[in-house]
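Q: Got a minute? One more chain.
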Amino acid sequence: MVDAARGFVVIAGAWVRAALTYRTSFVIMVLVQVVITFLDFAAILIMFSHLDAFGGFTLPQIALLPVRRPQARKAVFHH
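A: Always. Here it is, folded:
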C-alpha cells in the first residue's frame, strides 16, 4: 500500500512538473476545471430546488459524492 501511494505521488509530481512547463495552459486548465465543477454543482442545486431527494440521496449527500467518477454517477443516477 505504501509503495502504491509513493508511486502515485511520484507520478502526480511528474505530471504537475510537466504541466507547469506551460504555465498559462496549466492555469487555464485549473480555472476551467473549477468553472466546470461550479456549474455541475449549480445544476444539482437547481434540481434540488424542485426535489427533496434524488435517487434516495439528499443534497448534502450528493454534494459530497465525486459525481465525475462513473461509479458514483451510476449509484446516483441509476439507483
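A: The helical segments are 2-19, 23-48, 59-64, 70-77.
Q: Perfect, thanks.
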